[in-house]
Amino acid sequence: MSRKYQKICSLCLIAAPVLCFLICLGVGRYHISLPETVELLLSPLTGAAVDETAFSVIFKSRLPRLLLALAVGAGLSVAGGAFQSLFSNPLATPDTLGVATGASFGAVLALLFTRSQLVVQLLAMAMGLAALLLTCLISRRGGHSSMVMVVLSGMVISSFFSALVSLAKYVADPEEDLPAITYWLMGSMNRATLPGIAIGVPLIAAGTAIILCLRWRLNILSLQEDEARSLGVNVRRMRLAVMAASTLITASCMSMCGQVGWVGLLIPHACRMIYGSDNRRLIPAGIGMGAAFLVLIDTAARSATAAEIPVSILTAILGAPFFILLLRKTGGAKL
Amino acid sequence: MGIPAVGFSTTQWGSDSIETFQGWVSLLGEVLQQEDRADGIAEYGREVYDMIQQRLAQAGDDLEKPRVFWLFRYSSGVVQTSGSNHFGEYWANATGAVNVAHESDGANFEVNMEQIYAYDPDIIYISNFAPYLPEDLYNNAIEGNDWSVVRAVQEGNVYKCPLGMYRWYPPSSDSPLMLLWLAKNHHPELFEDIDMTQELKDYYLRFYNVELTDENIEKIFNPSREAAGA
Asked: S-S: B137 plus which of A262, B27, B147, B149, CB 3.0-4.6 Å?
C-alpha cells in the first residue's frame, strides 16, 4: 500500500480510540443528553450540582467500562500480534501458551468457593501466570527449548486446564455456582470493579509498554533462530521477555472480563493488511485499532438491548465476516 | 432401551406458576400411580388468583400499579432478571404490578446497572437464588454496583422472597401464598383483611398437616443468604 494511504491510516488510528471513547461515553441504556453529559464530566471541577443517578451512570458505569475496553482491546491486539511474530504463525493468539485457559480455571475455581470478585480476579491472574510457567518448564529440554516445543506444550497445558474447567463445572452446584461460572466464561466488561481495574489495567499497560519497546526486535525474533543469533540478539532472553509481557496482558484481561475472543487474531491481521509485517509499525497500529474496536463492540454489548450481550459473541459475529472480507480482498497479507 | 422416561416442563404453561405446579403434580401422580394429595393446592391457587383479580378489577383502572424489578440471580457482578417469559412476569401481572423488564421476551437475562437505573423500579424483589439480602442493597455493600441511586432502594422497598417448602419465586407447593404475599405488598389497602401469619398457619395445616409456630413463620419470611446455595 502506498505511503500516503498508510499515513492517512495512521492518523485515523491515532484519532479513532479517542473519538470512539468520547462518543461512546454518551451512549447507553440510561438516557443522558449531550449537554448534560458534558456538564457531568466537568462537574468534579466546577462543583455544579448534578443528578446523582446520571453521575453514577457516567462515573461508575460508563467511564470504568470504557477504560477497561480501551485497555483490553489494545492489550489483546498487542499480545496477539507479538505471538504471531514470535511463533512465525499467523494463527497464534494470546491463548497459544494456555494462559487464557489457565486463567479461566483460576476464576472458575475461585467462583466455587467465593463471591468476592477481587479474589476471583487475583486467582485467575495467578493461574494464568502458572500456565505460562508450566508451558516453559515442559518445553525445556537440556536447557534449551525450541519454538515448536513451546507451542506444543502450550496446547497441552491449554487442553489440560480446559479439562479442569469442565471438571469444576461438573461438580458445581447447578442452581447457583454453575450459572455464575457459565456467565463468567462468556466474557463481559460488566462485572469489573474499580479496585479490580486499578490492579488489572496498569498491568496491561506495563505488558503493552514492554512489547512496544521490544517491537523492532520482534522482527528479528520471527527469523530462524541461528539467523537471529547471528544478528547479535539474545534470542532466549528476548523470547522470554515477549512471552512474559504477553502473558501479563492476557492474564490481566482474562481476570477482569473473561474470555474475549477474536481481538488478538483479528486486529493484528487487519493492521498487517495496511502496514505489512513490520512490527515497528504493526504494534502501535494494533494499540489504536484494538482499543477503538473493543470500545465500539462493548458499547454495543451494553446498550443494544435491555439484555447485556456477552462480548465474545459480538466479537465473533462481527469479527468473522469482517475478517473474511479482509482476507478475500487482500488474499491475506504475508506474515 | 425400553426404559420409560418422563420430562417435567418448566415452560409448557407459560410463566403461570399455579398451572405449572399443577402440571407437575398431576404428571407426578400419573407416574407414581397415586391420586395426588396436592390436588387441592392448585384449586386453592386458582381461588386465590380469582379473588385477587376480582379485587383489582373492583379497584378500577385508576389503580396505580407499582413497577417491580426481579433480582432473580445475582452473583459476581452479574444481575439476571425476569423477562416476559419467566415467572416474574406472571407474579407481577397476577398481583397488580408491572414487570419493568416486560418488553424483553427472554426468560431470564443479564442486565447492567445503567439499565436498572433506566427501569427505575418502585419495588425490588430478591429471589432465593441470589445470596443477597435487602440490607446489602440499602447499605450499598455490593462491590462494583451502585444501588444507592435506585428509587426502590432509596424508598426502602426492597424485599427478599420468602422461602417455605421451597423457594417462592419458581412454582412450588407454596405458590398460592406467594400470590397473597405479593398482592398485599403491592396493594395493602385492597388486602387489609389478609393476615399473612394466619394464612400461612392455615395453609400449612390444611395441605401439609404441619402446625407452624411464629418462629417458623419468622424464618420463612427472613431466609438466610445460604439458602441460595442449597
From this structure: B147
Nearest neighbour of A117 by CB, restricted to B73, B83, B143: B143
Given a contact cutoff of 8 angstroms between Cβ atoms, the answer to whether A242 and A88 are in contact is no
Amino acid (one-letter) located at B192: E
Query: Domain extents for chain A?
Result: 66-330
Cα-only R_g, chain A: 20
**Mean pLDDT (whole number) for A171-200:** 85
Contact between B76 and A176 using a beta-carbon 8 Å cutoff: no
| Chain B interface test: which of A51, A182, A191 (most B C-beta within 10 Å) | A191
Q: What is the pLDDT of residues A217-259, one digit of tens each?
A: 998 888 888 888 888 888 888 999 999 999 999 999 999 988 8
- pLDDT band per the 50, 70, 90 thresholds, residue A332: low
Between A173, A191, A305, which is nearest B229 by CB?
Answer: A173
Residues of chain B neighbouring A120 (CB-CB closer than 8 A): 76
Tell me the per-residue pLDDT of B163-186, one tens digit each, with 9 for 90 and over: 988 899 988 889 999 999 999 999
- Contact list in B for residue A177 (CB cut-off 8 A) is 229
Cβ–Cβ gap B101/A190 under 8 Å: no
- How would you label A298-316 residue by residue, b for 16+ Cβ within 10 Å and e otherwise? bbbbbbebbbbbbbbebbe
ipTM of the complex: 0.86
Residue with cell 439484555: A307
Residues A282-331 pLDDT 10s: 999 999 999 999 999 999 999 999 999 989 889 988 888 877 887 787 66
Q: What pLDDT does A333 receive?
A: 55
* Domains defined along chain B, listed by start: 20-62+164-224 (no CATH), 67-160 (3.40.50.1980)
Residues A207 and A209: their CA atoms lie apart, in Å, by 5
